[in-house]
């Protein structure tokens, strides 16, 4: 006999017990846990490739975005027996942490049922944790700056990388910023190469336009400027995955963009914010704009 508030669901041959599907997780819009799970099921054909093989940090909001949340590195002990994990050595704990892996639909649905609204992945695959498959620039606007300023700096990052022979892709963070990704997918790359390279790009941009850009980690100097965060290129850091929901008052998505949209945003013509419904419509229309990030091989100059 089913427990009260629990509903069974068969997903690709796995039996899942989903609870409290009518619980509202985004009070401003009435978006429920069932809506969250529904979004992830529909987005899965494009999303799962970006999760496959990557350890995952959880950001759980069991009572919704207006209630306390918590990060979780260790995959929950009550996970199903079939749920895959990856051992990642922690120097601070002096032991391996078993991170969740969510490269299939049953795992994705199970995590969504936990209230894991946001999906944050390593830049490397679990099989080669010292080898990032990409480099990322997290563009974060300081007080007085916003999406137009972030979009303008994203174009500067793109053009700088292009001058070095590197192609890049861009996504909305789903929050207030923009992320520029540089696919690498080569065997010789390490964080010892990507992190100082990203820092050098950020510092070059700051030197060229100090009134618009900062590469400094201190928050005190960010007013009216965009912080080009190069420090995300680190073995122990994670970045929000393409097509992940974000825990904002209204549900938004970390949504891949076309560079033309970024050019429009730099002019103030769009805010680069996309709802789950808008994201799914875009996916049906354009496909996965971030697909090349998974396979394109590039070498740092």
Write a compact overview of the structure shown.
The chain is of the alpha+beta class.
Note the main attributes of this structure.
Alpha-Beta Plaits; 2 domains; 301 residues; 6-stranded mixed sheet; 26% strand; DNA primase, PRIM domain; alpha+beta; 4-stranded antiparallel sheet
What does this structure look like?
The protein is α+β, with helices and mostly antiparallel strands. It has 2 domains: 6-127, DNA primase, PRIM domain (Alpha-Beta Complex), CATH 3.90.920; 134-294, Alpha-Beta Plaits. It contains 6 helices and 18 strands. Strands 13-14-10-12-11-18 form a 6-stranded mixed beta sheet. Helix 1 (33-51) crosses helix 2, helix 1 (33-51) runs parallel beside helix 6 and helix 3 (147-163) packs across helix 5 (259-266). The longest helix is centred in the first third of the chain and has 19 residues, at 33-51. The model has no long low-confidence stretch (mean pLDDT 95).
What's the helix-strand series?
EEEEHEEEEHEEHEEHEEEEEEHH
Question: Can you tell me the CATH class of the largest domain?
Answer: Alpha Beta
**Rounded mean pLDDT score:** 95
How is the largest sheet built, in terms of strand order? 13-14-10-12-11-18
* Secondary-structure-derived class: alpha+beta
Can you tell me the CATH topology of the largest domain? Alpha-Beta Plaits
User: What's the end-to-end separation, in Å?
Assistant: 62 Å
The total beta strand count reads 18
The main pleated sheet reads as: 6 strands, mixed
Q: In one word, what is the shape?
A: globular
